[in-house]
C-alpha cells in the first residue's frame, strides 16, 4: 500500500490541473492497471488529493473507455484534508463487456455545490486525469 501511495505521490507532483476551478492541492491519478472479474466487475484505482470540501461534497468518478465502449465505473466520496488518499471504484459491467488489454480511464474530482438559485446541487469539475491502462 505504501509503495502504491509513493508512486501516486510522484505522479501527483507531475500532474497539472486541467480545469479552471482546481485548487493548488487538487489532483487525481489513475493506476496503470485495472481488473476484470469473472462476473464482469471492473475495478479501477488511483490516488487523489483535495483540500477544501466546504462548498459541498467531493467525489472521485471514473469512466472506462475501450474501443467504442464507455461506462462509468463507480464513484468514491473524497476526504478533502490536503493529504494523499487512494481511491478504488468498482462496477459490474454487463454491456458493453470489457476484455483484457489496453483501455483508457478518465478520472475526475467533482464537487457538488449549491450555487443554483433553487439550491439544487450542481457539479463542478475540479481536476481530471486521462490515463492509458491495461485491463487484466
Summarize this, please?
By secondary structure, the protein is mainly beta.
Note the main attributes of this structure:
136 residues; mainly beta; 1 helix; globular; disordered N terminus
What secondary-structure arrangement, pairings included, does this model have?
Blueprint: H1 2-14, E1 27-30, E2 33-36, E3 41-49, E4 58-66, E5 69-77, E6 85-92, E7 101-113, E8 122-135
Parallel strand pairs: 2-8
Antiparallel strand pairs: 1-3, 2-3, 3-6, 4-5, 4-7, 7-8
Instruction: Quote the beta fraction.
Output: over 45%
Main beta sheet: strand number and arrangement?
8 strands, mixed
Low-confidence stretches: 1-21
Radius of gyration: 15 Å
CATH class: Mainly Beta
Number of strands: 8
Determine the fraction of residues in helical runs and give it as a percent range: under 10%
* Total DSSP helices: 1
The overall average pLDDT, rounded, is: 84
Q: SS-based structural class?
A: mainly beta
Whole-Å distance between the termini?
19 Å
Shape field = globular
The SSE order reads HEEEEEEEE
Amino acid at each position: 500500500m505504501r509503495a502504491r501511495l509513493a508512486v501516486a505521490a510522484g505522479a501527483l507532483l507531475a500532474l497539472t490541473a486541467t480545469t479552471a476551478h482546481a485548487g493548488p492541492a487538487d489532483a487525481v491519478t489513475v493506476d496503470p492497471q485495472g481488473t476484470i472479474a469473472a462476473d464482469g466487475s471492473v475495478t479501477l484505482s488511483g490516488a487523489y488529493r483535495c483540500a477544501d470540501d466546504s462548498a459541498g461534497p467531493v467525489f472521485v468518478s471514473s469512466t472506462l473507455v475501450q474501443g467504442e465502449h464507455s461506462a462509468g465505473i463507480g464513484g468514491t466520496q473524497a476526504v478533502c484534508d490536503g493529504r494523499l488518499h487512494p481511491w478504488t471504484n468498482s462496477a459490474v459491467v454487463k454491456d458493453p463487456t470489457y476484455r483484457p488489454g489496453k483501455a483508457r480511464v478518465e478520472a475526475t474530482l467533482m464537487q457538488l455545490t449549491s450555487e443554483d438559485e433553487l439550491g439544487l446541487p450542481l457539479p463542478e469539475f475540479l481536476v481530471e486525469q486521462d490515463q492509458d491502462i491495461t485491463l487484466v
